[in-house]
Amino acid sequence: MNAEILENTNIRGDYYRIRFRAPLIAAEARPGHFVHVRIDERRDHILRRPFSIMDAQGDAVTLLYKVVGKGTASLSALTTGKCCDLMGPLGRPFTPQPEARALIVAGGYGSAATWQLTRSMPGGVVLLGARSADDLLLAQEYAAAGFEVKLATNDGSAGTRGFVTELIPETVARNEGKPFFVYGCGPKPMLFALAALMRRSGLRGELSLDEIMCCGVGSCFGCVVKVNASELPEKFRYARSCVEGPVFPAEEIYLGEETK
Ligand SMILES: Cc1cc2nc3c(=O)[nH]c(=O)nc-3n(C[C@H](O)[C@H](O)[C@H](O)COP(=O)(O)OP(=O)(O)OC[C@H]3O[C@@H](n4cnc5c(N)ncnc54)[C@H](O)[C@@H]3O)c2cc1C
Fold it and tell me: What residue owns the CA closest to ligand 1's atom 19?
C-alpha cells in the first residue's frame, strides 16, 4: 500500500525515525513484524528493503533505521508528504509470554524490533548493547516505559565495557520471582552467542534474525537460515526467515558451525 510519510527525522548520526500513515498495517502490527519498503521507483532500488515495525499507534507505523547503503540513504532524503509503497506486516512476530518476566536483549537498531513488547508487558529488564554510546538506541524510552535498562558498549563509552551477552549471567542470578523469557534482536554474531548462552543456561526465548532478504514473502529463498532438524543426517534444514521468521524460538537456531 502507498503510505504517506508523516515524519522522517534524524535522531543522531546515521540513525533516523520515520513514521508512515498506514492504517491497515498499524491495525495488524505485532511485536517483531516487519514491513518491506519500496523506497522509490528508481532502477537501483528495485528490491524492497525490510525494516522492523518499531511502533504502531493509531493509523501510523514507525520505523527506526540506520543509513548503511544506497537504499537507506535515499530513504533518509525523503521528506514529509512523500510516499513509499509498504508491504506488511510480514513475518512471524514475537509471542509475548505474560506468565514470564521479559528479558529483552538488543544490539544496535535491534532495539526497534523489540520496542512494541513494551506496549503489552508490565516491565522487565532490557539489556542494550552497541559498539559505542552513539549506537545505543531507545534506552531512555525503555526506562520511561518502566523497564530496568542496563547498557554495554564495546568501547566502554556507556555502561559496561564488553558484549551485551556478558550482562546476562548476573541479571539472571539476581532475578527473583517469575523466570525470564528472552526476546532478542541484533547482529548475527550477537544472536548466535545469545542462543548458545541460552542453551547452556536453560533460558527460554525467541530471537529475531535480520537476514538479508529479497522478496519478503517466501518465494525466492534468498533469506534462508539454518534451523535444527535432528531427524536429518546433516542435523539442520533451511528456513526462510521472511515467512518462518524473522523471529525463531532460540532452541531452533542451528549452532553447529557457528560454535565450532
Ligand atoms: C527482518 C529485518 C528487519 C530489519 N529491521 C531493521 C531496522 O529496524 N532498522 C534498520 O536500520 N535496519 C533493519 N534491517 C536491515 C535493513 O533491511 C538493511 O540495513 C537495509 O536493507 C540496507 O539497505 P541499503 O540499500 O541501505 O544497503 P545496501 O546497499 O543493500 O547494503 C549496504 C550494507 O548493509 C548490509 N545489509 C544489507 N541488508 C542487511 C540486513 N538485512 N542486515 C544486515 N546488514 C544488511 C549489506 O551487507 C551492506 O554491507 C532489517 C532487516 C531485516 C531482514
Answer: 68
User: Could you state, in order of their start, the residue ranges of all structural domains in the chain?
Assistant: 2-90, 101-210
Residue nearest to atom 52 of ligand 1 (CA): 210
Q: Can you spell out the DSSP letters for 12-27?
A: ETTEEEEEEE-HHHHH
Q: Which residue's alpha carbon is at the smallest distance from atom 28 of ligand 1?
A: 69
Distance of CA 117 to the CA centre of its chain: 11
Cell numbers at 173, concatenated: 542470578
**Three-state SS for 166?**
helix
101-210 CATH fold:
Rossmann fold (3.40.50)
- Which residues, 6 or more positions from 107, have their beta carbon under 8 angstroms from its beta carbon? 128, 129, 130, 164, 185, 186, 187, 190, 191
Protein residue with least CA distance to atom 27, ligand 1: 69
Q: Is 64 in the pocket of ligand 1 (CB under 6 A)?
A: yes
CA angle at 211 for the pair 165 and 99, rounded to the nearest 5°: 50
Is the peptide bond between 249 and the residue preceding it cis, with omega within 30 degrees of 0? no
Summarised one tens digit per residue, pLDDT across range 156-184 is 999 999 999 999 999 999 998 899 999 99
CATH fold label, 2-90: Elongation Factor Tu (Ef-tu); domain 3 (2.40.30)
Whether 213 is in the pocket of ligand 1, judged by its Cβ within 6 Å, is: yes
Angstrom CA distances, 63 to 173, 186, 250, stand at: 34, 15, 25
* Residue 30 CA to ligand 1 centre (angstroms): 20
pLDDT tens-digit profile of 222-236? 999 999 999 999 999
Any atom of ligand 1 within 6 Å of the Cβ of 109: yes
Ligand 1 close to Cβ of residue 49 (< 6 A): yes
